[in-house]
């Protein structure tokens, strides 16, 4: 029989043990939950959602947070929040490898998704670097693309990507290209070259361009821009097999390079009493990584987003 004091002490010990265990237990997602709402309810601050994100690598997109899913939560009194970029826009090297955005980017690189995106989406600053077509012909053994003025010394069988220019370009100085197929050099007579189409998602038109398929293994290292950069989304491509792709209004000339990690902010327009629309900084809503950088524009893959990114959203 325990004395009252001993019983109270034992009860307190049990309560403390239970509290410590519950702090480390899982959380079952309810309908309508978001990472920020879970962080507000369970951790006391909505901006601690990255800690939950870091502990649950299976949750990388909003639609993956389904009711009934089980999440790990940080232990009481601990924080897994990674160091944020400094005022100079840099990142402490000793913390970047544990950063959630870095890990997301690394997953995309290791899965070869970034390599495929770099093969399928291009920004062409100089049209002279591409092979222009003169005719598209159906021959007995398949579809052929013909180009005049072909002066390259290339052996037959070399693979080229067939790229379709955007029907709605945002600027005339950069051509936005999407790969729709592949072709190989089949014949060359003087300056006339014929390319045999080996695969295509749709019939190529005469405005299609040919570019060598990038087969080199380019090492892309996720990193934060060396200086603060404010970037605006000019175009959002939603229905792409590789994920959400954003066309950004900054490129290599402004310091962006493949691997650059940018924080996504949704637009936050507020109408004043006079009726004028004022733009306020929006809440951080996800991350994106640049995978193609032209001189003035760049393409980025959305790594995570609380809401669907849209034209006018900003990245920093």
UniProtKB/TrEMBL annotation:
Region (Disordered): 75-96
Biased composition (Polar residues): 76-95
SMART domains: LysM
PANTHER family: PHAGE-LIKE ELEMENT PBSX PROTEIN XKDQ, POTASSIUM BINDING PROTEIN KBP
Membrane-spanning ranges: none
UniProt protein name: LysM domain-containing protein
InterPro entries found in the cross-reference section: Bact_Kbp, LysM, LysM_dom_sf
CDD domains noted in UniProt: LysM
The keyword Signal belongs to this UniProt entry's keyword annotation: yes
PROSITE patterns on file: LYSM
Leader sequence residues: 1-23
Segments forming domain LysM: 25-73
Keyword terms of this UniProt record: Signal
């Amino acid at each position: 029989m325990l004395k009252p004091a001993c019983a109270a002490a034992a009860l307190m010990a049990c309560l403390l043990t239970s509290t410590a265990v519950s702090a480390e237990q899982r959380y079952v997602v309810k309908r309508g939950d978001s990472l920020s709402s879970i962080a507000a309810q369970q951790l006391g601050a909505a901006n601690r959602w990255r800690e939950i994100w870091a502990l649950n690598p299976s949750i990388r997109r909003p639609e993956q947070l389904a009711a009934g899913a089980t999440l790990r939560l940080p232990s009481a009194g601990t924080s897994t929040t990674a160091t944020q970029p400094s005022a100079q826009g840099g990142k402490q090297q000793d913390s970047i490898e544990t950063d959630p955005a870095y890990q997301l980017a690394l997953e995309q690189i290791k899965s070869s998704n970034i390599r495929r995106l770099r093969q399928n989406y291009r920004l062409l600053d100089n049209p002279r670097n591409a092979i222009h077509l003169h005719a598209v012909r159906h021959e007995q053994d398949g579809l052929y693309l013909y180009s005049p003025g072909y002066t390259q010394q290339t052996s037959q069988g070399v693979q080229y990507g067939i790229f379709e220019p955007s029907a709605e370009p945002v600027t005339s100085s950069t051509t936005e290209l999407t790969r729709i197929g592949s072709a190989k050099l089949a014949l060359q007579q003087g300056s006339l070259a014929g390319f045999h189409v080996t695969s295509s998602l749709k019939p190529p038109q005469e405005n299609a361009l040919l570019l060598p398929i990038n087969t080199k293994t380019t090492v892309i290292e996720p990193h934060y821009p060396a200086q603060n950069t404010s970037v605006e989304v000019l175009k959002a491509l939603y229905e792409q097999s590789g994920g959400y792709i954003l066309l950004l209004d900054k490129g290599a000339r402004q310091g962006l390079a493949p691997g650059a990690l940018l924080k996504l902010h949704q637009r936050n327009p507020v109408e004043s009493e006079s009726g004028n629309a004022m733009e306020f900084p929006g809440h951080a809503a996800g991350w994106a990584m640049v995978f193609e950088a032209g001189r003035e524009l760049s393409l980025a893959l959305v790594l995570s987003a609380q809401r669907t990114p849209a034209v006018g959203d900003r990245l920093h």
